[in-house]
Amino acid sequence: MRVLVVEDEQDMAASLAWGLEAEGYVVDVAADGVEGLWKAQETNPDVIILDVMLPGMDGYELCRTLREQGHWAPVLMLSAMDEDLDHAEGLDSGADDYLVKPFSYPVLLAHLRSLARRGFGARPAVLEAAGLVLDPAGRTVTCGGRQLDLSSREVAVLEHLLRHKGHVASKTELLQHCWDALYDGSPSVVEVHVHRLRRKIEAGGGPQVIETVRGEGYIIREEQR
Ligand code: CA
Known about the structure:
Helix content: 40-55%
CATH superfamily of the largest domain: Response regulator
Low-confidence stretches: none
Number of helices: 8
CATH architecture of the largest domain: 3-Layer(aba) Sandwich
Number of domains: 2
Distance between the termini: 27 Å
Radius of gyration: 18 Å
Largest sheet: 5 strands, parallel
Bound molecules: calcium ion
């Protein structure tokens, strides 16, 4: 999952990025509204965490502009307790959820997971395919009730494919959503991880769920045979 954090308070932005990366998210940070808008257009995030009071362009305006341009990533707005967060204006601008600072980290994570579910239409709390179950909250994957020993990157790749069932994900797309923004290596690293992921799933008695679409990428199909 790729998260864009738009926050002008450096300490807040850094601690959010650090914490989210530790949870296995890919994080981009923007320090003002204009940079935030540009990064939202460029990085195609799965969720945007958006501070309301920003230099350049405030959170409301940024959100409204994104929606006008047809960007529909779920937006979680942050405001300080002493700021008068105008929920009506936020809703009109197209935000999906709110959090008032200071907030606890577990609460932020819960909001993000809930938004990620909403972002791709109605989705269950756990992601499933043919007996393979991924729990985004615990970052665990089980197969027939047995837990698989997967790296956080392998979980991220599997999560992306499960969240977009029926859609062929290219290696570039997987790199964008599962590797951090600074990674500039070859897309063949995706092949290596998918290969390892398949081996671990099948060694755990799991199904062959990840299909290769030659020259295009990988897919987990909606209906498993
Ligand atoms: Ca601010």
